[in-house]
Amino acid sequence: MYKSLLRAYRKIFLCLVAGLYMSVAITAQQSLIKGKVVDSLGKPIPGVSVVLKGTTLGTITGVDGSYTISGNLPTEGILIYSFIGMKSQEKSISGQSIINVTLNEETLGLDEVVVIGYGTQEKKDITGSVALVESEELASRPNTQLGSLIQGRAAGVRVVSGSGKPSEGLSIRVRGTNSITAGSEPLYVIDGIPTTDTRSINPADVETMTVLKDASSAAIYGAQGANGVVLITTKKGKSGKTIVSLDTYTGFSEVWNTLAVLNGEQYRDLMTEMGQSTDWERYNKNTDWQNEIFQRGISQNYQLSVSGGSENTNFYISGGWVQQEGAVRSSEMDRANFKINLNHEVNDWLSLGSRISYTKYSDVDVNDNNAVNQGGVLTGVLNTPSIIGIYNEDGTFTSNPFQNWENPIASTDGSDRAYKSDRFLGNMFVKVAFLKDFSFKSNLGVDYSNGIYDYFLDPYLTSYGIAKGGIASNNTDRSSFWMIENTISYNKKINHHSLEGLLGSVAQKYLWENNYITTENFSSNGVTTTNAGSIITSAGNTKSEKTNTSFFGRLNYGFDDKYLLTANFRADASSSFGPDNRWGYFPSFSAGWRISQESFMQELSFLNDLKIRLGWGIVGNDQTSNYAFYGLAGSGANYPIGGQSMPGTYPSSIDNNNLKWEESEQTNVGIDFSMLNGRVQLTADAYLRKTKDLLLDAPLPHSTGYDNALQNIGNLENKGLEFSLNTVNIDKAIKWSSTINLSFNRNKVTNLVVESLPMGDIAGRGEAVILQEGQALGTLYGYIWGGVDPTTGNGYYIDKNGESTFSPSPEDRTIIGDANPDFFYGLNNTVDYKGLGLTVFLEGAYGNDMLNATRIDSEGMSDPKNQLATVNNRWRQPGDLTHIPKASWANTDNSRISTRFIEDASYLRIKTITLSYHIPQSLLKNIKLDQVKIYATGENLFTITDYSGFDPEVNAYGGSNTMKGIDYGTYPQTRNIIFGLNVTF
Predict the structure, then answer these.
(1) Whole-angstrom distance, CA of residue 874 vs CA of residue 881
(2) 3-class secondary structure, 812
(3) pLDDT tens across 721-736, in order?
(4) How far apart are CA 605 and CA 171, in angstroms?
(5) 404-438: b or e for each residue (b if 16 or more CB lie within 10 Å)?
(6) What pTM did the predictor assign?
(7) How far apart are CA 372 and CA 374, in angstroms?
(8) Residue among 726, 907, 945, 936 at smallest CA distance from 160
(9) For the segment 180-220, what is each residue's pLDDT rounded down to a tens digit?
(10) Bridge partner residues of 548 (DSSP)
């Protein structure tokens, strides 16, 4: 497949090169066209772009609206007249020398149709808080992950990657984290099918993404809408000629930051200082482990689509393949996609369609977020001394001179491992129009996936593999989902009144199944499957299912295009909750007042739209375990029977028939402002979201016989401000537009059944995060670092009484940081000039703290790990003034989790720069191409930050609700350079 695609790519590229140098003769029948452009009142419009279609030949109108085009003009051609805020027009030349044009006003964005829950709505009529990412924005940034498409594009939507792995998914938070132990990811709805897995979705197939942020817009999804809803619409064909598009790019990636570590001589001095000695003559290598592990990653992407249709039928068919080799050795991702979208209008009352996609996915993971002695690759590149090589003389991997901690290449190359999955996602629907204003739609959707993870640790190459005689694991997982959705819609307009109603029901079911087995003690490495191991160390099988039933309705009312009302209601039942509280009820109301339509505002000619929105609603969260309310049995207990200890089962959790949904009540106030024919558009929102009945595994009285149980206790609050500004700065020969968004969110636990819950053990130093009433989720926890005593070289801390101590007690731990940013933002600028395009996208966060736990291992100086070069400034003798304490073998007192390792992780990142060029149509006609764009993109090119680690945009615990702001040898974001080509036939 790769070779055939590459051959096709080369042929197209050669044709394009030839086309660039091909002169096209245009028979000149006339040399001058002139005219005047005015508005509907007859007033001249300066700055109107007048361009001969398919060429770069053109001009702009002067202050009096007049224009002149001279040169080799054809007798047959089309002139395009365009101006911001006006409807573009096309005029045929047909031998004319004078062409006058009247342009009519078109306010940008207001008549735009936006996808909302179970339908669409014009943007001007929306009363909830909704963010839209359109196809133009999606196309401006090539990407392999769906979540990256909205990163920095929507106010209130934060996209955070736990690491930079090719296989890493993205964590999306809409208006903050909304739960403690239940899920906080938004609901994704792809062409009407709800899902939580977007990793295998092809971004090239996406047309638009709409984010329902507040409860008034998301309540139509009831129990699944507490964390926001992301509606994803894929591309479809249009009637007319068939369009064939080829998109391809090749990219290179690398780790953008490396850290200085001790060289061999400095490491030997440190070990000697700590009283350790070995045969140093034996260890005389000079290995740069960062250079060995970090590599130039390569990616390639090929996407081919065919779309078109007739008056009654349209289609979109696409196929694609993307492959990535990561910037860290052995990391890989491979994905092949196929998709077909069909729509057919049988007659004026019956239509039907389908959306079908298949994905074949695989990846190879890298062990990060672990210490070097646990196989952590990123900590390994820092903590493995340079004095050892990669291999011993017998071909096995080398280890630390003092401990059997193998080098990081043993973790990347010592095992064969891969995850592979197949996924089928599709739906079929039929829509029937009946009576005059009613329609009925039935939708059947399925989502099926099957995954296999295989692992084999060679019995000869690694110390652990030798000790175990080799290890093999096989883990298979299968999931399936089906849903049946039926809706009836009513739409009526009478004079100044408009009414839209919706009633519907949904039934859906999830099924999960998992099988796993691990074996050891292999006679050779010839057979790598589990059956070749003679000892079964673990095996098992699990199955679970979950069902949901829902009924919902919506009513939209508008009067005179001024006063807008929306009401939603949904009733949900879930098998996850107890029979006493299985049903949840989720209402919402919102209103909008378009002040700009009032008569007293008509004198403000510059103002196009001014709307105030107010919304309130309740949504739920059922992202918890499938049998959450059941009392379950565990296995593995040993009971004395007949003088022998026999395995058995035991009650592992207690029944809780009162268990129910988490419930979030949200109030939103917003304003939408548009002026200068849409050249300036501002949206601002303020919100307050209160979540109660949190699902928390809380302690129980010992008299119950259980330690804890899942209960509805605790409250959480998020409140914030959001601003989004879109501007068209220049609209002449040069076109320049900007998009800016700024988001503030404050998160706080307002009620908790226990005093506090420390969590997140890191680096063997205890918990690093605390869950506590009155504090935000992601509150960092530890000791207050006082400094280094110049007499002894030991670090001292500040206790709870404000006094210094060398031996603080656990009670002296306190809040030492907050992983949540004060605000986060995105800034996108797009400039176009005669086929040249430049997009610059900046993204960042300010005020978030990070526990740089990598430094605990790399500046702790308590064991034989290599250290960062900063420890060259350590205390060595009485009187030394330094912030780095002395080295102390087998003593971690100087490297407790404390403010010493808390850093400001604020950053401003040039996320994307894309330079593109559309080859003129005049050069493409003879080779039968409609459009060709070549581009170069740079991602993560430059980062401004004070953070001293590999990267400030990571988290060792991925998308955890509570354990945030921790870097412990985490795979960093990479710098990527991409060269691409888009061709349309």
Answers:
(1) 9
(2) helix
(3) 999 999 999 988 899 9
(4) 44
(5) ebbbbbbbbebbebebebebebbbebebebeeeee
(6) 0.86
(7) 5
(8) 907
(9) 888 888 989 999 898 877 777 888 888 888 899 999 889 89
(10) 508, 574
